[in-house]
């Protein structure tokens, strides 16, 4: 509506002035045309023909002057128009438009299910919305006079996050979904929250320039915890009977007191293998839940990686034979590092089992341990099926198995690489890989030669 108003066709003051100027001067020119023509042209003689010629010239001259005055008036008007800045006009409609959008914004902010509030550099809270009041468990006055930094839990991890947060807030750097433990106003209720902060520029004169958003993930974390606890409990409970089965079969297969027919012995051996697989799977599941709970800490000792590799290769000899694979093992440099023996063993074991499992008959698997001054790298290369390029990014995801792997081996959990990566990272190292479909795959473990904080 404001637009229509501005475009209404009415002459401005300068245009009216120009129009009056044009008419006025033109009138004067034509009134005093005789004198003007005489002054500018010549005085006509008294002959009738001379008079007629003079009148013609006069009309021509006066028309020319009139057009000239018209042009000057137009030019001046255009100039003034261009020089004139359109004056902002605030109409009644514009004001009510602004009021309406302000009210809409206020309603959205107030009633959003996501807790929002503003904060100053020192962590003081202002303008909390209704969801924030629910989150902190207080009235508007109580929450608006609280300090966010005082509500962050006081365990060591939360305090570290807090000092990072303070530093970023002071520099007006954004914070995106940082997970932390946070108390309600009663200092009893504890929430897990994802906190995001968006700040205006540091130069902004507004004191409460940080907009804080909180996503309450307490329930999600609780249900994850219940799942992990259940997995832990179930695996513990399952392991005991499976171990008993293992002992009895072991006893039956080795004892001399009971005679077992060959056919039964074969069945028992199959049961034994199946049982071993179950125990292995349950041990893996237990380890995964320990990793997720963060209760798995490395125990550092001196480890001879060459010895570990030799040991694993002996264990896998029958599989290697079955696949008719060529194994090449190489070691460069002095063999001794300080690391967790079990973790590094499981990591190398997983890489070698995968290389054997995913390489067709007649292929080659090589393992190279390279001892550099700061780190030790263990590289496992195979000439196998490779990993399809579009599936490579998911390879370390828990329970992920590539499409080609599922075809060649039904036997797999998709937990091996997840465990390997978690272990290597716990040891302060990294796991890298490169793979080409139907050509082969290389995995490289890099671990520090000494314990990270030694
Ligand atoms: P799995 O029990 O299936 O072997 P892993 O976590 O060890 O589980 O490996 C996950 C997936 O990564 C495998 O299913 C397979 O698709 C792929 N993969 C791992 N190692 C290799 C390899 N050496 N060659 C080809 N694919 C591999």
Number of domains: 4
Bound molecules: adenosine-5'-diphosphate
- Please give the oligomerization state of what you see: single chain
- What is the CATH homology-level superfamily of the largest domain? Histidine kinase-like ATPase, C-terminal domain
Write the layout of secondary structure elements.
Blueprint lengths: L1 H5 L6 H19 L1 H8 L7 H36 L8 H20 L4 E4 L5 E2 L3 H7 L3 H5 L11 H15 L4 E9 L6 E10 L10 E7 L1 H37 L7 H32 L6 E4 L1 H11 L1 H6 L3 E7 L4 E4 H17 L6 E8 L3 E8 L20 H6 L7 H11 L3 E7 L3 E9 L6
The structure holds adenosine-5'-diphosphate (ADP).
Adenosine-5'-diphosphate binds next to helix 13 and helix 15.
Structure description:
It contains 15 helices and twelve strands. Helices cover 52% and strands 17% of the residues. Helix 3 (33-40) crosses helix 4 (48-83), helix 9 (218-254) packs antiparallel against helix 10 (262-293) and helix 10 crosses helix 15. It has helices at 2-6, 13-31, 33-40, 48-83, 92-111, 130-136, 140-144, 156-170, 218-254, 262-293, 305-315, 317-322, 341-357, 403-408, 416-426, and strands at residues 116-119, 125-126, 175-183, 190-199, 210-216, 300-303, 326-332, 337-340, 364-371, 375-382, 430-436, 440-448. It is elongated. It folds into four domains: 10-84; 110-216, Beta-Lactamase; 221-293, Helix Hairpins (Orthogonal Bundle); 300-448, Histidine kinase-like ATPase, C-terminal domain (Heat Shock Protein 90, 2-Layer Sandwich). The protein has a five-stranded antiparallel beta sheet, sandwiched between helices. The chain is of the alpha+beta class and 454 residues long. Bound molecules: adenosine-5'-diphosphate (ADP). Adenosine-5'-diphosphate (ADP) binds next to helix 13 and helix 15.
